[in-house]
Design a protein that fits this description.
The protein has 15 helices and 18 strands. The protein has 2 domains: 254 residues, Aldehyde Dehydrogenase, Chain A, domain 1, CATH 3.40.605.10; 181 residues, Aldehyde Dehydrogenase, Chain A, domain 2, CATH 3.40.309. It is α/β, with parallel strands linked by helices. Helix content is 41%, strand content 19%. α3 packs antiparallel against α6 and α4 runs parallel beside α5. Bound molecules: NADP nicotinamide-adenine-dinucleotide phosphate. The site of NADP nicotinamide-adenine-dinucleotide phosphate has 32 residues, from α8.
């Protein structure tokens, strides 16, 4: 894919970039090592001050960077500005909590025959971050804020269609005061990832992206024996049971499916509705989906902008066409308009069967697949009948059903009577083909740390009489 900003509203290429040469990549990795040496010796207090300065820059530049993201990938300006705020909040969250999350964990010395024993979190070094375009600032920040607070350095290989947002990120932390080289953007295509990850100076990698990219990076990292965190695709279920507030559920279903123009890993994608409330819920859901305004993403009246890429729209069109061919019913939307730009309307498809692509594939656009379930057991079976396991939504006011759903939905997150979203306070990640490892919370900052056991005895051997293994 060429490295370029292409406006999804018009398909016009606005700015193109040459990928870095091998020599430039090599020099950048060198700077990441130098930056690491400088950063790891700084105090949490110092890093927190720089991280708060980064948050202040984001707040001050929210309008400009928001507009840049809208131009590069088509999300509404309101959503883009909210994303900038979310990033500033994450910076402040890790500025405040990193020291506590990475504090030494003491062990009762006598239990290990030591005078003193503890586990200490230490940074690993330069980490490669391969990131997607859909939340171009947030996905990268979710890695960067904890990584830098832990003392790691970052090399960002961003998606090729958001190069200007990538360049903004590449300068943000240095402008905030961090030492040179601690966070750099490498404008490279995906073919350069193998070389970078194979470099012995790069200690680990994180990827947010598709299953294919995840398999590729995991294979390289496996060969090189490097730690990885993989945040991959999702096809989140949204289970609606009879005791739920159906109007509210339909409203949240619409927001979840169409957020970010339908291109969110944790969007609800499969709507599994109990037969007793099926007609009522689906009618209300279709009404909400049909009422959304599709339009220019810079306008504040717009709910849904264009898809980010031509390929992305072609994929969605093919999945819906496949469902229609095999007997599905389109309740609203379902047809891309003629003309420039990569628009696709909010769409609801019912009567989906297991042989349709929509049943097993992630649909990365504003298209909801609806399923009927005769019981909670069938709803859970359908919800788990996917190779993905990122998030899961479920709606019921019955406490027993709530506990059962929380236990039995096979996903990295279960939200009951609410929309799956990410909070810095809660771990974020998936199971099955949605990946492994966690971002955010204490778990996220610890992923790229060496958890070192430190055991100290008395050289005379006094006090040391416990088992030694
Ligand atoms: P993608 O094609 O996998 O791209 C993501 C990043 O990986 C880009 O930087 C891309 O570079 C790079 N890449 C692609 N193929 C690669 C390969 N074989 N080896 C190394 N790097 C490779 O994904 P996308 O289409 O941009 O994003 C949508 C996907 O990301 C969806 O499946 C979505 O669910 C998932 N996602 C997951 C999360 C999560 O937190 N779990 C969050 C957001 C999105 P180029 O752009 O240069 O190709």
């Amino acid at each position: 894919m060429p490295i370029a900003t292409t406006n999804p509203v018009s398909g016009e290429v606005i700015k193109s970039f040459e990928p870095l040469t091998d020599e430039q990549i090599d020099a950048a990795i060198g700077r990441a090592v130098t930056g690491f040496r400088a950063l790891r010796d700084t105090s949490f207090e110092q890093r927190a001050a720089w991280m708060r300065a980064a948050a202040d820059l984001l707040d001050a530049e929210q309008d400009d960077v928001g507009a840049l993201m809208t131009q590069e990938m088509g999300k509404t300006l309101a959503a883009a500005k909210a994303e900038v705020t979310k990033c500033a909040n994450a910076c402040r969250f890790y500025a405040e909590h990193a020291e506590q999350f990475l504090a030494d964990e003491p062990v009762e010395p006598s239990s290990v025959g030591a005078v003193q024993a503890y586990a200490r979190y230490q940074p690993l070094g330069p980490v490669l971050a391969v990131m997607p375009w859909n939340f171009p600032l947030w996905q990268a920040m979710r890695f960067a804020a904890p990584a830098l607070m832990a003392g790691n350095t970052g090399l960002l290989k961003h998606a090729s269609n958001v190069p200007q947002t990538a360049l903004y990120l590449g300068e943000l932390f240095a402008r905030a005061g961090f030492p040179a080289g601690v966070f750099q953007t490498l404008l490279v295509g995906s073919e350069a990832v193998e070389t970078i990850l194979s470099d012995p100076r790069v200690r680990a990698a994180t990827l947010t992206g598709s299953e294919n990219a995840g398999r590729s990076i995991a294979a390289i990292a496996g060969r090189e024996l490097k730690k990885t965190v993989l945040e991959l695709g999702g096809s989140d279920p949204f289970v609606v049971l009879p005791t739920a507030d159906l109007d509210r559920a339909a409203q949240v279903a619409t927001t979840s499916r169409c957020q970010n123009n339908g291109q969110s890993c944790i969007a609800a994608k499969r709507f599994i509705v109990h037969t007793d409330v099926y007609d009522q819920f689906v009618d209300t859901f279709v009404a909400h989906m049909s009422a959304l305004t599709v339009g220019h993403p810079m306008m504040d009246t717009t709910d849904v902008g264009p898809l980010a890429t031509r390929q992305g729209r072609e994929d969605v069109q093919a999945q819906v066409a496949d469902a229609i061919d095999k007997g599905a019913t389109v309740r609203c939307g379902g047809k891309a308009p003629e003309g420039d730009g990569w628009w696709y309307p909010p769409t609801v498809v019912t009567d989906i069967t297991r042989d349709m692509r929509m049943f097993s594939e992630e649909v990365f656009g504003p298209v909801a697949g609806v399923y009927r379930a005769a019981s909670i057991a069938e709803a859970i079976e359908l919800a788990n009948a996917t190779s993905y396991g990122l998030g899961a939504n479920a709606w019921t006011d019955d406490p027993q059903q709530q506990r059962r759903l929380a236990d039995e939905l096979d996903a990295g997150a279960v939200f009951i009577n609410g929309m799956v979203t990410s909070y810095p306070q809660l771990p974020f990640g998936g199971v099955k083909n949605s990946g492994y490892g966690r971002e955010l919370s204490a778990a996220g900052i610890r992923e790229f740390c060496n958890l070192k056991s430190v055991w100290m005895g008395d050289s005379s051997g006094a006090d040391v009489d416990a088992a030694t293994e």
